[in-house]
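Researcher: Next sequence.
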Amino acid sequence: MKKPILILAVLFSLLFVSESKAQYNTGIGLRLGSGNGLTVKHFIQSGAAIEGILYTRWQGFIITGLYEVHKDIDGAKGLQWFYGGGAHIGTWNADRRNTPWGDNGNSSTVVGLDGIIGLDYKFDDAPINLSLDWKPAVNISDNGGLWWDEVALSIRFAF
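Model: Next structure:
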């Protein structure tokens, strides 16, 4: 358990290394991947954003909150890479639960920590933002374990 906390602490210490300029203030849209749902990303300062994700997976619902640091990629206007971390909570109803672990006849709630790394692109002539990311997570309650397969494409309306 100490290793994920150490990794999260290192990520947060890297948050203040340098800044980049955000290409948009807020983006709202769809997140499509191993779980599908809604995403909202808002820049709270230059180079720092918070993201909220509400998605469904294994016929349950998961809410994730993330803090992300964005860095410009030299020579690629509108393209940034980002990293960060946060937490999630999810629940599955006993009648609809379809997870790859545990007893599918029982309701379940899971809480855990998330990391994220990816690419973020804002089209210059259109209010469209695309993000491709990998979001591994570790569950620290009920049916603990790792989710390594959280890869998704987010398509947002940016304003």
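Model: The radius of gyration is 16 Å. The beta strands are 26-33, 36-45, 48-57, 60-72, 79-92, 108-122, 128-134, 137-139, 145-147, 151-158.
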